[in-house]
Amino acid sequence: MQALTFNEIWNNYNGRFFDTETMKFWNSRIYGTCTYSKDKNLYYFVTSEKAVMSDRLYTVRAYNKKENSIVTISDFSAFKYKYQAVNHMNKLLGM
Fold first, then answer.
1. Which residues span the domain enclosing 6?
2. pLDDT tens readout for residues 31-83
3. pTM (2 decimals)?
């Protein structure tokens, strides 16, 4: 299993996903210090977003190294608890 740190992703990714403005708008957080891939192409991680008047909810996402893009793997805000999103991500990775 291959790992990348978020710094490595941020240094390569050219989109707006990690912009301060975008993160503030969605009240986003990123969990973990590195992401993992089975095929050295999709690097999985968990984010959370908190809308006004709503609970913080969790999403499994991945950095697609080949296409230099962020993709949503689970449904957006699919998990009520972080551990549920992490468990889902680990299942996808075969961990």
1. 2-93
2. 877 788 888 889 999 999 998 888 999 999 999 989 999 999 999 999 999 99
3. 0.86
Tokens of 77: 């805000």
- For residue 38, CA distances in Å to 7, 33, 95 come to 20, 17, 10
Q: How many domains does the chain have?
A: 1
Is the distance from CB of 56 to CB of 49 less than 8 angstroms? yes
**Residue 41, token pair as written in the block:** 């192409």
Pairing outcome for strands 42-49 and 2-5: unpaired
Look at the block and give the residue holding tokens 């978020």.
Answer: 6
Task: Read off the tokens for 10.
Answer: 């941020």
